[in-house]
Design brief:
Elements (H helix, E strand, L loop, with lengths): L1 E4 L10 E4 L2 H23 L25 E7 L3 E8 L2 E9 L3 E3 L6 E3 L1 H14 L11 E6 L6 H11 L3 E6 L2 E6 L1 E5 L3
Parallel strand pairs: 3-8, 8-11
Antiparallel strand pairs: 1-2, 3-4, 4-5, 6-7, 9-10
Length: about 190
């Protein structure tokens, strides 16, 4: 218990009183617990932001919107391939190619190929491809859409067909023939 001595101030009787400190300590503990609880939740509700947030650097200036590049989406189906050129969400061109595999090699090491697909991809790239200049270091993008049950040898044959179109690329040591597409797998 705490006590307060008020002194006698010239009076004969001294006035001493005791203050019950338990309610004060209870109030202090409740206040500290609220402080700790809200401090934890405040850090969880923060949103981290940095200078790489998209948008114009100066809101008063108007930026010209950039058109997205064309991307070749290659779908492996049961009986055919789908070649779909998209620019953003817009379908530019769509072609179906029948799935006609050709086995190359002897009986011990047969390799699967799709020559008709390779020919059609090259034609499509010549018609819709965006990066043909030898000084342009960017490659056209291709996205491969396939089912999880597709055999590995089929995927390899499709990749070979996709990498068959070549283009010239000017490098410091000279010009070199490189595949026209940079391929990525789609994710579901």
């Amino acid at each position: 218990m705490g006590g307060v001595d008020v002194g006698d101030n010239g009076k004969k009787r001294s006035t001493n009183s005791e203050i019950n400190m338990v309610p004060f300590i209870d109030l202090l503990m409740v206040t500290i617990s609220f402080l700790l609880i809200t401090a934890v939740w405040v850090t969880n509700s923060r949103m981290n932001a940095d200078a790489q947030v998209p948008g114009p650097p100066d809101p008063n200036k108007e930026l010209t919107p950039q058109t997205p590049e064309k991307v070749l989406n290659l779908h492996i189906g049961e009986s055919e391939f789908g070649l779909v050129w998209k620019q953003g969400a817009t379908v530019v061109n769509e072609v179906k190619v029948p799935k006609t595999p050709v086995e190359v090699g002897d009986a011990s090491s047969k390799i699967l190929r799709y020559p008709e697909l390779a020919k059609r991809i090259e034609e499509e790239w010549k018609q819709h491809g965006g990066h043909r200049d030898p000084s342009d270091k960017k490659l056209d993008q291709a996205i491969l859409h396939t089912d999880n049950r597709t055999p590995f040898k089929e995927i390899i044959a499709v990749l070979d067909a996709l990498y068959s179109p070549k283009r010239e690329l000017k490098l410091p040591e000279g010009t070199k023939q490189v595949p026209a597409f940079n391929m990525t797998f789609s994710v579901r």
